[in-house]
């Protein structure tokens, strides 16, 4: 059992750290304050072959393993969680289903430009009345000649306002329950697709989120992803992959919280000495360091199992629930260490605390992760 990163992984990690210092750190505060999509950073990520990292080079990717991908998401999120999630959603949720279930023609048409970062992807499954209960969705897809006609509304669609390519889930036969759901690749210029309400969020504000409205949206038959009735399987499989990215994002947020806390504690003088000399502060930072290491190993282990072609659903859920709750706990502690300053705009820990919360919610709430874990260990 080897816990050491390879030389290539260490190099990629350092390269991403350099990238964030140069391109992400300088704009992180501004894009958060203005809820602005970091278009210039996404273009730079595309130029550096970061947008399709885990996919083979013949499909436009970089051909790296999923552990390396998790490292990159962590480092990017350490600088800006919104930018890290934009990449993660694009790479795992949008591109992943096409790579895993798409035909060769679909991969060449849709995956290649996504993996190269020439186009941005989004994933549309959540609806106003269907969150964790995916089967409660009401979006329908009716075959009409050479196309499916989609009708319904998706909500909380990450990357929705800026996406070129969507993976959309709809029922082709509602009477079959979950077995009647199918998946479709839908382009933004498909007639009948419209971006609806934009959501302005508490955290990860630079990540773009919106409704996607489908009204008599005609999708060519050849853009059915997989087979009819495979939609729920594709969605659940995609969430397993995506949870590794969210766990990595949470680890990055927590690492940034600890970095900021250490720096501040060493320079903040109270009662004639740095507060880092106080046992109460030392214990907070010791707990941060311990939990971050544990979450990182859980995340890398889930990614390693995926790379080995082994089942990883349980491990991905474990990594996500632990990393997300750990990140929230320690982002809050970082604010506490900073005292009143931590509660003010301009201090990074204030943004980190807001950003951390969403990791307990999207791509399966913490409660849903426990359902997945229990379902695996009790069967």
Question: Would you write up a description of this structure?
Answer:
- The chain is an alpha+beta fold.
- It folds into three domains: 7-115, Acyl-CoA dehydrogenase/oxidase, N-terminal domain (Butyryl-Coa Dehydrogenase, subunit A, domain 1, Orthogonal Bundle), CATH 1.10.540; 121-229, Butyryl-CoA Dehydrogenase, subunit A, domain 2 (Beta Barrel), CATH 2.40.110.10; 233-377, Butyryl-CoA Dehydrogenase, subunit A, domain 3 (Up-down Bundle).
- The protein is built from eleven helices and ten strands.
- The protein has helices spanning 7-24, 28-33, 39-47, 66-79, 81-101, 104-115, 231-267, 279-307, 313-338, 348-357, 366-377, and strands spanning 121-124, 140-144, 147-158, 165-171, 181-187, 193-198, 209-220, 224-225, 269-270, 273-274.
- The strands form three sheets. A four-stranded mixed β-sheet has the order 1-4-5-8. A four-stranded antiparallel β-sheet has the order 2-3-7-6, with no helix packed on it.
- A hairpin with a 2-residue loop joins strand 9 (269-270) and strand 10 (273-274).
- Helix 1 (7-24) packs parallel to helix 4 (66-79) and helix 7 (231-267) runs parallel beside helix 9 (313-338).
- The protein is globular.
- The two termini are 28 Å apart.
- The relative contact order is 0.11.
Average of the residue pLDDT scores? 97
Distance between the termini: 28 Å
The whole-angstrom Rg is: 21 Å
The DSSP helix count reads 11
According to CATH, what is the class of the largest domain?
Mainly Alpha
Please indicate the count of domains. 3
Strand order of the largest sheet: 1-4-5-8
Provide the helix percentage.
Answer: 40-55%
Unreliably modeled segments: none
Number of strands: 10
- The structural class is alpha+beta
